[in-house]
Design a protein that fits this description.
It is a multi-pass membrane protein. The chain is mostly helical. It is built from 16 helices and no strands.
């Protein structure tokens, strides 16, 4: 009887572990087929949704790879873009590319295989570590860009002294090395999860789930999102306030200088102080806009600089808004699920997939924001794409010329033929110049006979 009770209890524990494992997999970055799915496996609607999901994921991966590669190549090719801020942008593009390569591609393989992990137990830890590492690095880069823009606009005179090359290297080193303490160390030391989940993973190596405990969820989300997000919001608010204040002060100073200049001109033309005061009173209200335009025309350097700073602040605000829109749903789900428990706060598999890939979409969105809202990047992107198209057309033309006969090639045969004709013409002219008068007469007679 005792043996029967032990066997029954063991079967019950195994069954509960399997159920817990399947349930755990629902709320992770693996997508196991939902047993409560109302669609049958042969449903055309299910096939359409799977195809649509696959196309969207492939599009996000390709956009993240080629968009960020375009940012890196454009900054390398154009000297005008080689400023301190854009070094952060290049480093951000590299981090986003690595997110696409390591995090998105592995997640895509799990999604298309129905939630089955085919790379083994060790690579599951590698994937989870790289996912946390590169996503955190991308978010910290955005935080560094906001801090850099803050000093550039709020303290423009001290900016060259604050943002030196040494500080730039130090900030990039912190951004790239600090996420390792949050990803590789706790994951490989098995501090991030519970003992039940580790046992479940050992029993089911074909399922790569990332279930965290409450302590790790609070610490990792704070370092990866909440603290950098608050810093970015505060920096952007200060940048907006300071840029607006500088613009108003610049406008007032230019208007005052333009009005003073105009009043002095009126004083030189008029007969006395009375006419000057009358002209000032009459023109003070009506000529503010004209004076401001005249002031902008007389000092284009400061106005263009202010426009650039305003554009930078606007671009930063758009980046921060996109960052919050992409990552806020994921970290809300991440923290709430860990704190209240995965059984109590159950999330369907499609919700988990959605919050993961909306967060990944931020890595593909940053190059689009730079291309659309920054004129210098837009011009650099256009030139880089034109160069790539020209280079690819030359390769196609060269391959085409190798398949054709030499007279029909796409090479410089026409230019060479034209050059040979010019050489022949010069030789003929030189020959005629060397002929004597009698030889020239004999040659003409021979041509007439012919």
């Amino acid at each position: 009887m005792n043996e029967f009770m032990k066997i029954t209890d063991q079967k019950t524990r195994n069954t509960s572990e399997i159920i817990e494992g399947n349930f755990t997999d629902h709320i992770t970055n693996s997508s196991v087929t939902d047993p409560f799915n109302p669609w049958p496996s042969h449903s055309w609607l299910l096939c359409f949704m799977v195809a649509l999901k696959t196309l969207i994921m492939v599009f996000i991966i390709i956009a993240a790879l080629f968009g960020n590669l375009l940012v890196i190549v454009s900054v390398m090719r154009h000297r005008k873009l080689r400023v301190i801020t854009n070094y952060f942008v290049v480093s951000l593009a590299l981090a986003d590319m690595l997110v696409a390569i390591w995090a998105m591609c592995f997640n895509f393989s799990v999604e298309v295989s129905g939630g089955r992990w085919i790379f083994g137990y060790f690579m599951c830890d590698v994937w989870n570590s790289l996912d946390v590492y590169f996503s955190t690095a991308s978010i910290l880069h955005l935080c560094c860009i906001s801090v850099d823009r803050y000093y550039a606009i709020v303290q423009p005179l001290d900016y060259p002294l604050i943002m030196t090359n040494v500080r730039l290297v130090f900030m990039l080193a912190v951004v790239w090395f600090s996420p390792a303490l949050l990803s590789f160390l706790p994951i490989f030391m098995e501090w991030y999860t519970t003992a039940e989940h580790l046992e479940f993973r050992r029993r089911n190596p074909h399922i790569c789930s990332f279930t965290v405990n409450r302590t790790y969820s609070v610490i990792s989300s704070s370092v990866s999102f909440w603290v950098p997000g608050m810093v970015m919001i505060f920096m952007y608010y200060r940048i907006y306030v300071e840029a607006d204040r500088q613009e108003r002060m610049l406008y007032r100073s230019k208007v005052a200088a333009a009005l003073l200049n105009k009043h002095l001109q009126i004083n030189g033309i008029s007969a006395g102080l009375t006419s000057l005061r009358q002209s000032v009173d009459e023109g003070l209200v009506t000529d503010d806009k004209a004076a401001a335009a005249e002031a902008v025309a007389t000092d284009p350097g400061s106005s263009s600089k202010m426009k650039r700073e305003r554009k930078a602040a606007r671009t930063l605000g758009i980046i921060v808004s996109a960052f919050l829109a992409c990552w806020l749903p994921f970290f809300l789900w991440y923290v709430i699920s860990a704190l209240c428990g995965y059984r109590l706060c159950y999330s369907p598999p499609w919700v988990v997939t959605l919050v993961f890939w909306v967060g990944y979409f931020n890595s593909a969105l940053n190059p689009l924001i730079y291309a659309y809202f920054n004129r210098e990047f837009r011009v650099a992107f256009t030139k880089t794409l034109q160069s790539c198209c020209h280079f690819s057309s030359q390769l196609v033309c060269r391959k085409y010329s190798l398949r054709r006969e030499p007279p029909m090639t796409c090479s410089n045969a026409s230019s060479e033929l034209h050059g040979n004709n010019l050489l022949r013409a010069e030789a003929i002219v030189q020959r005629f110049n060397n002929l004597s008068e009698q030889e020239f007469i004999n040659l003409r007679q021979n041509e007439a006979v012919i």
